[in-house]
Each structure stands twice: as C-alpha cells, then as structure tokens.
Design a protein that fits this description.
single chain; two-stranded antiparallel sheet; two-stranded antiparallel ribbon; 4 strands
C-alpha cells in the first residue's frame, strides 16, 4: 500500500517470488521551473518542513529534493544554500 502524496505513486512495481510486491527504481521528477520559488535554507530547516509550509503537505518533500539534484540527501543542504521549490501545480502532475 502506498500513501497519498508519496513519490512512489507512479513507480512501476513487479512481483518477486510470486508474492512480494517490489517497487522498481523511481523516475526522478522533472518540473517546469518557470514559476519556481527560491528559498535560502536556514539553521533548523528541514526539507519536509519547507514542503509543509509551501504545499501544506510534508510528504511532498521529494519534489524539493528532485528539483535540487545537486543534493543527494537532505543532510547535504547547509544554511545559506539556495534551493528551488517547484510550483505546486507542477508537483501534483507526479502524483
């Protein structure tokens, strides 16, 4: 079962060993960033916290990470780093 808003909603899945549902590798989302918001990360920020403030849903953190491929993981983002936040109407295309 996948939760609403998960980044794996459109990820292909297959059955392994006749009974185990396994997700394939997820395609990284791409967005039209024409109307993106840019935000300077500050001490204490988290990507899911920013997603909640921007989209009203912390589970959409993956969209921010996909829009910032220079970071492989949230812990790489440091105070002072500028991150792109894709527009919500672009994010929901991936749900």
């Amino acid at each position: 079962m996948l939760f609403k808003g998960t980044r794996f909603t459109n990820t292909p899945a297959y059955i392994r060993d006749g009974s185990v549902l396994v997700l394939d590798i997820r395609e990284q989302a791409t967005f039209d960033m024409t109307n993106a918001t840019y935000y300077t990360f500050v001490e204490g920020d988290t990507v899911d916290g920013i997603a909640y403030k921007q989209y009203g849903n912390a589970a959409l953190w993956w969209a921010i990470m996909d829009a910032n491929p220079q970071f492989q993981h949230e812990i790489e983002i440091k105070p002072g780093d500028l991150i792109a936040i894709p527009p919500y109407d672009e994010v929901i295309k991936w749900l």
